[in-house]
Amino acid sequence: MAAVAVERPPVEDKVRTMKLGGHVGFDSLPDQLVAKSTQSGFTFNILCIGETGMGKSTLMDTLFNTSFESNPAPHTLPAVKLKSHTYELQESNVKLKLTIVDSVGYGDQINKGDSFTAIVDYIDKQFDDYLQEELKIRRSLSAYHDTRIHACLYFICPTGHGLKSIDLVCMKKLDSKVNVIPIIAKADTISKAELSRFKQRIIQEVKSNNIQIYQFPTDDDTMVKVNSEMNNQIPFAVVGSTDFVRVGNKMVRARQYPWGTVQVENESHCDFTKLREMLIRTNMEDMREVTHMRHYELYRKKILETMGFSDVGQDNQPVSFQQTFEQKRVEHREELQRKEDEMRQTFVLRVKEKETELKEVEKELYTKYDILKREHAEEKKRFEDLKKRLEDEKTEFQKRKHQIATQTLSTHTLTLGKSKKK
Ligand SMILES: Nc1nc2c(ncn2[C@@H]2O[C@H](COP(=O)(O)OP(=O)(O)OP(=O)(O)O)[C@@H](O)[C@H]2O)c(=O)[nH]1
Ligand SMILES: [Mg+2]
């Protein structure tokens, strides 16, 4: 057999070379996240707590540079009420669903002891709604409107003296439920020297009452400097205004007085820009995160524990949700059975009691009947005796009557005989 030589094409000619359409790598993940978040939008919920007329609505208008058109609250409410409004805001292509919750009638009541109750209840209700959604079988957390409060601005009255008891009590009740940011309201009514003393006193009182106010995060290297500086300036002294004044060739938000103008955005006039920077620009995401990771987590833990769930059993060994659920079901059944037995026993006991009661009554009735029967027999006998006596008397009477009649007749006959003899 003759060998046939086959000619092969060179190897390089068979390899297909393709050009990449773009960069390949997971370093695009953050961009994907940004695109997704931008598309779904953001939610931010602010709670304003402060006495009536403290400038809450004005500050919200100033903060978001818009007019939310709110009406002044009445002073005559019997209790504190919370009113919430949701607004859809858009800046470039970022959508923000902003909810502003206002404490209406806060501090207006004579007894201010439980002013915080309505606020605590509101915050818990929002946590509860979220928990219910989380526990659903078909949950849709991405479409869910999260109404949990991310920031609570506590408006301190600019008295210059210190915090009122209502402020201390309320902030203490809220510090484990929400990010409390105390601010000095209407700071234009307080002088510069007074303000720094006032701030120090507030911080001192907050510390001595062990109130955990929100601290801007200092764990991020890029933000550590500015945030720690801002933490030292809390509580921010703010001024709000809905009026605009021309300064140079610009219209700025300001409050005009006969002696001058307070510019809201002027850092030497008040801390408004610091608050806006910290609240909206720098730490909005951190507040959302702290709300979810700390405050909500705490609420969830407490609720699940009161429902009897725990991560570890009595022997300190991990137990699953399923095991706890099964155990609870068994306990529940046993409890039901115990209650049923208890009720049955009570029923039998009651029936027996009733039976004895009825027997007693029956016995009593028989006794009464016997007495009545005896009395009746005696009465009958008495009447019969009486009747017999009467009849005897009647017979006697008849007899006497007859005698007398006979006597009278004989006497008459005798008298008649005598008169004839004469
Ligand atoms: N001096 C001063 N007055 C202010 C400031 N902010 C608001 N005001 C005035 O205080 C009054 C009440 O302001 P609002 O913003 O309606 O106060 P509020 O807390 O929303 O009041 P209610 O909703 O009724 O509880 C208005 O006359 C405002 O012009 C401020 O920073 N300084
Ligand atoms: Mg208002």
Written account of the structure:
The protein has 422 residues and is of the alpha/beta class. It has two domains: 39-306, P-loop containing nucleotide triphosphate hydrolases (Rossmann fold, 3-Layer(aba) Sandwich); 316-401. Helices cover 50% and strands 14% of the residues. The protein has nine helices and nine strands. It has helices at 29-40, 56-63, 115-135, 165-174, 192-208, 224-231, 272-282, 284-306, 321-421, and strands spanning 42-49, 81-91, 94-104, 151-156, 180-184, 236-237, 244-247, 250-257, 260-263. It has a six-stranded mixed beta sheet, with helices on both faces. A three-stranded antiparallel beta sheet has the order 7-8-9, with no helix packed on it. Strand 4 (151-156), helix 4 (165-174) and strand 5 form a beta-alpha-beta unit. The mean pLDDT is 87. It binds guanosine-5'-triphosphate (GTP) and magnesium ion. The site of guanosine-5'-triphosphate (GTP) has 16 residues, from helix 2. Guanosine-5'-triphosphate (GTP) binds next to helix 2.
